Amino acid sequence: MGANLPSGKCSPSDTLNAAISDFGQRNMMVEGISAFYRTPCFPAGAGPDYINAAVHLKSDLSSKDMLAHLHEIEAKHGRERLQRWGMRTLDLDLVACGDSILPDLATFEHWCTLSPDLQRQAAPTDLILPHPRLQDRAFVLVPLRDIAAEWTHPVLKKTVIEMCNALAPEALAEIVVLEP
């Protein structure tokens, strides 16, 4: 989860906390919450720094229904989908669901290997799990390490710790934990 714009009078950190409270009202039980981190905007220069965190949710919802609920929570907090990778009041991504590979391995591999230029232009119409680029993003992996360090990527067969350790030291150094 992340935010880099205020939502009404709420700071990005306040919005993340409010979204965490909203999960329980949507049949999603919070099992773990990472620290909050200040992270550079992605892509670089596209806006103010983000506040990012990871949340481990448990639910009997399907992954598609869970994503729909996450989008409803985003909208409640002022999220508008105007531009791919644009600034936002709240971004709730479903990055993994156990060892699920959705919709299938071939689709995952297509999106995982898409060139950066095409990534900026194209967005999948279906939910892709695990997120096809989570292994490349320190702003995802560092918070995820707080709550699921030993989770193993079902395609890459690497744990969150191993994926973090494979990142460039400069990328990891940009992720700064916020004081509670």
How does this model look, in words?
This protein is an alpha+beta fold. Helix content is 34%, strand content 11%. The strands form two sheets. A four-stranded antiparallel sheet has the order 1-4-3-6, sandwiched between helices. Strands 2-5 form a two-stranded antiparallel sheet. The longest helix has 14 residues, at 63-76. It starts with a strand and ends with a strand. The model has no long low-confidence stretch (mean pLDDT 92).
Radius of gyration: 15 Å
Number of strands: 6
Work out the helicity level: 25-40%
Main β-sheet description:
4 strands, antiparallel
Number of helices: 7
Globular, elongated, flat, extended or rod-shaped: what is the shape? globular
Order of H and E elements: EHEEEEHHHHHHE
Widest sheet, order of strands: 1-4-3-6
* Cα end-to-end separation: 17 Å
Brief account:
With 180 residues, this protein is an alpha+beta fold. The protein contains seven helices and six strands; from the N terminus they run E-H-E-E-E-E-H-H-H-H-H-H-E. The protein has a four-stranded antiparallel beta sheet, sandwiched between helices.
